[in-house]
Design goal:
The complex is a heterodimer. By secondary structure, chain A is an alpha+beta fold. Chain A has two domains: 72 residues, Gyrase A, domain 2 (2-Layer Sandwich), CATH 3.30.1360; 123 residues, Cyclophilin (Beta Barrel). Chain A contains four helices and 13 strands. In chain A, a hairpin with a 6-residue loop joins strand 6 and strand 7. The relative contact order of chain A is 0.17. Chain B is mainly beta. Chain B folds into two domains: 172 residues, no CATH class; 131 residues, Cyclophilin (Beta Barrel). Chain B is 12% helix and 31% strand. Chain B has four helices and 20 strands. In chain B, strand 6 and strand 7 form a beta hairpin. The two termini of chain B are 27 Å apart. Classes of the chains: A alpha+beta, B mainly beta. The interface between A and B is large, with 45 and 44 residues.
Chain lengths: 220, 312
């Protein structure tokens, strides 16, 4: 019996002399992401691996060049990736209150041809998956965002997006944990702290967690 | 804790750094640590420390420090022309400071980042397993910030390494900072560049722009053209050369973002990162295409240079 489509071979690319990128696919796909998270966890147990981080559909592996080469580790990764993935453990569920009053909310509604209330209804409908944690401390890429809200990034990114901004771009949504530059559309804000510098791990969301937004009343 | 040095003036940007927190990248936290790991390690070894101990990373200018206790120091990396009580002092050399001695710097001659180690290693806040200062998180090092006037730097009181002044790393074993060439391996998305742009990437001269910090350098050079769909975000590494749609490459450094979706067209090898760390705005640089085998040869050459400094 041929393996299911999601169990196909990994493509290995060197990332300099002490890391590699193992690509499992190129689609925004929950099953691929689950495999990437599982593969990263398996690789972190190896002595020749310093760190392995799952992307949407890939794993970036930092290795000890005195113990491994791209070839030796690549072969091991292909063996691991060909195995049937373990049953995924459902991640923790976070319920996040959002005040939908972002500076781009009206523009987003106009651009997708919905009322503001409908944008809020669509954004709060799914249970999103945390595909990956990264970019800046506390940031998590959530998705898939319903197609009704799909928009390209802003042409001109903002130099400074306020912390707590709830934003969308393409088939993704997220919350800015810190004031950083950003090109996503800001539709709301949340007071939930995502970057927790005095906790370990120092972030609220972990890869594989689930997130449900709900509309909160404006206070003040 | 034993106070050893007081900060009279901190210099432009002086932070406490060690070898960073590589495990934290899984939580989206930049790995951090010294930009020039070779100079950081060499300074520690000259001061009788372990390579993991914390040093001061001084950016573009040096601090002015006064010894509160006798101590051994070593200054490596960029040449900012160190002075002890006003008299020129050698770099890449272990130096003895008596109580009241003043360590200052005349000005930048070569490079962008100098490292100062002190015998015993600097005490500092630990965050996620590292003493490195993370400015974005406001944690680690000196209360998560750059040094300021009046700060007192301490060493661990329990440690007492033998004090040997005058040990030196010979100039032939130091990185060729003035070389202006970084060796790089083709990245996962190099094929997105057309043939002409691939040739330019590995031959043309690029200039480090003013948009240059511990996160990365934006480079200015010939327009490179690229094709292909947007990528799904993936984990990044220091040394990665990202190519945003603007066509202006970004070289990721120690405090780089941990994930992103721009194509990575090349990755600077670990042995060239100390040279990358010494680039300043306005400097020019070329990327020389290399292989994993050559990268490994260069990495081992740097390790054996450091091995000459290990305590007998």
């Amino acid at each position: 019996m041929p393996p299911p489509r999601s169990i196909q071979k990994a493509r290995i690319h060197p990332l300099g002399d002490t890391a590699l990128l193992a690509e499992l696919g190129s689609r925004l796909d929950t099953a691929l992401n689950t495999r990437a998270i599982g593969l990263a966890a398996a690789l972190r147990k190896r002595r020749d691996v310093r760190q392995a981080v799952a992307g949407y559909s890939s794993v970036t592996v930092h290795f000890d060049p005195d113990q491994a080469t791209h070839e030796s580790l690549g072969a091991a990764i292909k063996r691991l990736a060909a195995k049937r993935p373990k049953m995924a453990i459902p991640g923790r569920l976070h319920r996040i209150p959002v005040v939908y009053d972002g500076p781009d909310l009206d523009d987003v509604a106009r651009a997708v041809g919905l009322s503001v209330d409908a944008v809020v209804a669509v954004h709060t409908r799914p249970i999103y998956r945390v595909f990956l944690v990264g970019f800046v401390p506390g940031w998590a890429y959530l998705g898939p965002l319903p197609e009704e809200l799909e928009l390209p990034r802003r042409d001109v990114p903002r130099m400074r997006v306020p912390a707590g901004s709830v934003a969308i771009a393409a088939r993704q949504t997220g919350i800015y944990p810190l004031p950083v530059p950003g090109g996503w559309h800001l539709i709301g804000r949340s007071s939930v702290k995502l970057f927790l510098p005095d906790s370990d791990p120092p972030c609220l969301f972990r890869a594989g967690d689930r997130v449900k937004f709900f509309a909160a009343r404006k206070t003040q | 804790m034993k106070p050893v040095l007081q900060v009279v003036s901190p210099g432009l940007l002086t932070t406490i750094q060690d070898l960073g927190r590589p495990a934290a990248i899984a939580a989206g936290v930049p790995p951090g640590g010294a930009m020039d790991r070779f100079a950081h390690r060499a300074a520690n070894l000259l001061a009788g420390n372990s390579p993991q101990d914390a040093t001061l990373e001084c950016t573009m200018s040096g601090p002015h420090l006064v010894a509160e206790e006798p101590c051994l120091v070593a200054i490596t990396g960029a040449d900012f022309q160190p002075r002890i009580n006003g008299a020129p002092a050698p770099t890449w050399t272990s130096l003895f400071l008596s109580r009241g001695d003043r360590l200052s710097f005349e000005g930048r001659r070569i490079g962008a980042r100098a490292y100062i180690a002190v015998g015993g290693g600097f005490e500092a806040d630990r965050w996620l397993g590292s003493r490195s200062t993370s400015l974005i998180a406001g944690r680690g090092g000196m209360q998560g910030r750059a040094l300021a006037r009046g700060d007192v730097l301490s060493v661990s009181a329990e440690r007492s390494a033998p004090v040997v002044a005058g040990r030196q790393l010979p100039s032939g074993l130091r990185p060729a900072y003035a070389e202006g060439a970084l060796h790089a391996m083709p990245g996962p998305h190099v094929r997105r560049l057309d043939a002409e742009s691939r040739k330019l990437l590995f031959s043309a001269e690029f200039t480090v722009t003013r948009d240059d910090d511990r996160m990365g350098y934006r480079l200015d050079g010939p327009q490179l053209s690229m094709s292909g769909d947007e990528l799904l975000s993936f984990g990044l590494v220091a040394g990665a050369i990202q190519m945003p749609r603007s066509g202006q490459p970004i070289l990721l450094m120690a405090d780089h973002q941990t994930a992103g979706g721009y194509p990575v067209v090349a990755v600077v090898i670990s042995a060239s990162m100390p040279i990358a760390a010494q680039l300043a705005p306005g400097d020019t640089v070329r990327f020389t295409q290399t292989t994993a085998a050559e990268a490994s040869r260069r990495r081992l050459a740097l390790s054996s240079a450091l091995a000459t400094l290990s305590a007998p």
